[in-house]
């Protein structure tokens, strides 16, 4: 539980007081992930090949995607309308991506006030696509 909580709320100054006052049982409830606080990345585990993956997920529905060669971009849409973009090391890279931020207005609706998007920022050539 502590490992899970630290991945979504990587701040011991928040976790320890909750742990002392409420115990382990309430950590997930009292230390939720929050837009604006970068999360620890959930990194993939290398395999020897596709067959190993298929065996591991035998009988289980799963989805997979291409591995794009870019830069991790954890995009935080905040309720006040601001946007923060963090690297896999929780560094604030917001100023590197004005073009990404410009496209995010379309993600906001009456039902979406805030969100965290875990993405890969990839360069795109408009001509070669």
TrEMBL record:
Entries under InterPro entries matching the protein: ATP-dep_DNA_ligase, DNA_ligase_ATP-dep_cent, DNA_ligase_ATP-dep_CS, DNA_ligase_N_sf
Keyword DNA damage: yes
Top-level taxon in the UniProt lineage: Eukaryota
Pfam family, one: DNA_ligase_A_M
Domain ATP-dependent DNA ligase family profile span(s) in chain numbering: 41-128
Gene3D superfamilies xref list: DNA ligase, ATP-dependent, N-terminal domain, DNA ligase/mRNA capping enzyme
Gene Ontology CC terms: mitochondrion; nucleus
Keywords, comma-separated and alphabetical: ATP-binding, DNA damage, DNA recombination, DNA repair, Ligase, Nucleotide-binding
MF GO annotations: ATP binding; DNA binding; DNA ligase (ATP) activity
A single GO BP: Okazaki fragment processing involved in mitotic DNA replication
Family as reported in the entry's similarity comment: Belongs to the ATP-dependent DNA ligase family.
Name of the protein described by the UniProt record: DNA ligase 1
Record lineage: Eukaryota, Metazoa, Ecdysozoa, Arthropoda, Hexapoda
